[in-house]
Design goal:
The protein has about 725 residues and is mainly α. Among the domains are: about 1-90; about 115-190, no CATH class; about 325-425, Alpha Horseshoe (Serine Threonine Protein Phosphatase 5, Tetratricopeptide repeat); about 495-595, Alpha Horseshoe (Serine Threonine Protein Phosphatase 5, Tetratricopeptide repeat); about 600-725, no CATH class. Helix content is about 65%, strand content about 5%. It is built from 39 helices and 6 strands. It has a 6-stranded mixed beta sheet, with helices on one face. It is elongated, with a radius of gyration of 34 Å. The relative contact order is 0.03. The chain binds zinc ion (2 copies).
Length: about 725
């Protein structure tokens, strides 16, 4: 700003000049250069006043310069620029073109289109130099109709064979998503330079047509145009997106052959291509060969490993980066968040806080979703404070994620509070809240909110319907669910997917309407998948419908031979019918196919610390006390009729051992630790990675009654709120 001040002073006190002509001329050129270097709107207005005072207000060049300079300054100075331009009497085509070009580059390119329309009405003549600017403005605001009109005018006036106009037309169509029109113009061109090729290739890439990117690139290599770094980066990214490793390798070779400078931009593009093709070994080779590794390139490696879920390898590189920037932190944090390492994501976020690095929108979203995954309420509240502190509380996507986070941490109130406080809500906001109620078994509120959403004219989408149908099915609202399903198809023209049919099968199945469920499966236009057969099978299990259950389980195993639930069900059915030969056959198959149940793991948050328990875990430092507590609790429960239910245990061991295995389920260990440590009256929150088994479910219910404790368990699919011996899922899960 110092330059402005020194510039302003001498001009405001411009001394009178003895020779009027020279004086006039000097003042003109002085003003012209002052206008070019002005940096504020007030400075420009001062200069404008001097133009008027010196009687130079008929000077087209000064007025144009003033208009162009203020246009380039900021969005708010645009009306002023337009008013200055309006003072130019009958502007010539050349003058208008300069101003239009400036407008097309400004923060409001559409103003070029408005002005052009006005000038045309006033009788402006256009020449071939008018078109690139106008087409550029149309591209930038994706104004297809205006762009097509301008293109049409160009054709009428015979400018459409000018390569600059043609290139601008290609750019306009590509930017407006009309890629085949862009290609048509592109094919007509007699001369194509590297810019034109770049626009066309980028257009295909933006439209997600990665195979076309690669084909066009082949064509380009056959014509005599040399690709530049920009094009190569675009093509490399297309190779990655299309998963075309061979093509990516070929480009890498081409770069080496041509001895091109491997700047960090190009190296990152190569690394990203290799990682997108799933080949981190090749990325690592390239990385190892680099003589110097900067933060941009290393971050590409961190992202690459992270996206493939190889967080340990990502961390190794991350730790070696000396000057980590925000992009780099963000890549590592989202890597953890997305690969089921929520605790590490939060720890790293903490470290970043200590270093005083302000998170961006993406990092914040990752951290919120990590909290949701972790299901830890205290941590979530802590993160919410950061969201507010960094001013993200108005960001729609982050607020939506907060609703989901609170819901997954078992706090419907927290979710509700965020929802109520939002000024703006989109379909995702409503869907998140509807799904929150559904997850917690509050079908009434879920349906109520769904109706409210429709009343506020927000169009529900496919996901909204999954949530509300899920709520209906878990609460046994058969009629309501059928009505909603019908409205989805008839009113909203949403084609039902497997998830929707799955909810409907569930809806009928849970209500013991198994015939209706089977009819739906037989009539649905999609081939039933794992979800559908799984729902039917679960319903049969609950209602002890052996024949249909066996049928569904077998279809399920046709589609997914390693489905552990189906094996368990079949084996239980056979065991109950004493078909021992069949039981042995199922077990033999499971062993043969290597089916194993994922090891159960439960987490308990206590005083802001997370305690993790595996099935039959003895690694906790208070393990002895925990197992003693378990014995005590089992003793208490047996007095009120508890007997371990071992029907979900599929290992070939005797009944005593089965009982032990059930009792050592991770959620029971977590619960006992909670009973030891939590103050009386507080509720116990447990997050379990698998579906809760029947025995644990009964166990929790009894504990909630005998010890008068509220227990909240989040299992793989839903929440169970236990209170006074009952569960919110009404024993359907
Ligand atoms: Zn269990
Ligand atoms: Zn339950």
């Amino acid at each position: 700003m110092a330059a402005t001040a020194t510039m302003t002073q001498p001009i405001t006190t411009f001394p009178p000049h003895p020779n009027p002509t020279i004086h006039h001329h000097n003042r003109h050129s002085h003003l012209l250069s002052a206008l070019s270097s002005a940096t504020s709107i007030s400075h420009l207005k001062q200069l404008h006043a001097q133009i008027l005072r010196s009687g130079l207000d008929r000077s087209t060049s000064l007025l144009l310069k003033l208009a162009v300079s203020s246009c380039a300054l900021s969005r708010s100075s645009l009306p002023y620029a337009l008013s200055v331009f309006a003072q130019i009497p009958r502007p010539q085509t050349r003058i208008s073109n300069s101003f239009l070009r400036e407008l097309s580059r400004s923060s409001e390119p559409e103003s070029a289109l408005f002005l052009f329309e006005k000038l045309l009405k006033e009788g402006l003549r256009v020449d071939r130099f008018s078109f690139p600017a106008l087409l550029k403005a149309s591209s930038r605001v994706q104004a297809l109709m205006e762009g097509m009109e301008i293109h049409g005018l160009g054709v009428k006036l015979g400018f459409d064979s000018d390569p600059f106009v043609q290139t601008a037309v290609v750019r306009m169509y590509a930017a407006c998503g009309r890629i085949s029109d862009a290609r048509m113009m592109f094919e007509k061109m007699s001369h194509r330079d590297v810019v034109t090729w770049s626009i066309m290739i980028d257009g295909y890439s933006q439209s997600g047509l990665f195979d076309d990117v690669l084909m066009l690139f082949e064509e380009m290599k056959r014509s005599d145009v040399e690709p530049d770094e920009m094009i190569l980066s675009t093509v490399l990214s297309a190779c990655g997106r299309a998963g075309n490793l061979n093509c990516g390798k070929a480009i890498h070779e081409l770069i080496t052959e041509k001895d091109m400078v491997l700047d960090s931009h190009l190296v990152s593009a190569l690394i990203t291509m290799y990682s997108s093709c799933g080949s981190m070994e090749l990325a690592q080779d390239l990385y190892d060969q680099l003589s110097s590794k900067n933060v941009v390139v290393s971050t590409a490696m961190v992202s690459g490993y992270s996206k493939l879920g190889k967080v340990e390898a990502a961390r190794l590189i991350f730790d070696q980066i000396d000057e980590k920037d925000l992009v780099c932190w963000s890549a590592m944090i989202s890597g953890y968040a997305e690969s089921e390492h929520p605790q590490e994501a939060l720890d790293l976020f903490n470290e970043m806080q200590v270093l005083g690095i302000k998170p961006d929108h993406i990092t914040m979203l990752s951290v919120v979703s990590a909290c949701a995954n972790l299901g830890a309420l205290e941590k979530s509240k802590w993160i919410h404070k950061h969201v507010d502190k960094y001013g993200f509380s108005e960001a729609l996507s982050i607020s939506n994620a907060l609703i989901d986070m609170y819901a997954k941490c078992g706090s419907l109130e927290g979710a509700r509070e965020v929802f109520n406080r939002m000024h703006r809500r989109n379909v995702i906001t409503w869907t998140s809240m509807i799904s929150a109620f559904a997850m917690h078994g509050d079908a009434a509120n879920s349906v109520k909110l769904f109706n409210q959403m429709k009343a506020e004219n927000i169009q529900p989408n496919g996901v909204t319907f999954v949530s509300v149908l899920y709520a209906c099915s878990h609460a046994g609202l058969v009629d309501e669910g059928q009505k909603i399903f019908a409205s989805m198809v008839n009113e909203y023209n949403i084609v039902p997917k497997h998830e929707h049919y799955g909810c409907m099968v569930d809806l009928f199945g849970r209500a013991n309407l198994l015939r209706e469920a089977l009819e739906l499966v037989e009539q649905m236009p999609l081939a039933p998948n794992v979800v559908i057969w799984g729902s039917l099978m679960a319903a049969c299990r609950v209602h002890k419908e052996v024949e249909l259950g066996e049928f569904a389980a077998k279809r399920l195993l046709d589609l997914e031979p390693n489905h552990d639930g189906a094996h368990v069900l079949l084996s239980n059915i056979y065991a109950k019918e004493r078909r021992w030969e069949d039981v042995r056959e199922v077990r033999r198959l499971m062993k043969h196919k290597g089916v194993f149940k994922e090891r159960g793991c439960s987490r308990l948050e206590l005083n802001n610390e997370i305690h993790e328990f595996l099935m039959a875990d003895r690694s906790h430092k208070q393990a002895d006390e925990i197992y003693a507590k378990l014995d005590e609790v089992v003793g208490d429960l047996k007095l009120v009729g508890y007997a371990p239910n071992t029907c979900d245990v599929l290992v070939d061991v005797n009944e005593d051992e089965k009982e032990e295995m059930v009792l050592w389920h991770s959620e029971k260990l977590a619960l006992c630790y909670g009973l030891m440590k939590e103050e009386e009256g507080s509720s116990i929150h447990i997050v379990k990675n698998l579906r809760i088994c029947e025995d644990c479910h009964d166990f929790m219910k009894l504990v909630s009654k005998v010890y008068q404790r509220n227990i909240i368990v989040r299992d793989r699919t839903r929440f169970h709120h236990y209170k006074d011996g009952k569960c919110s899922c009404k024993d359907y899960w």
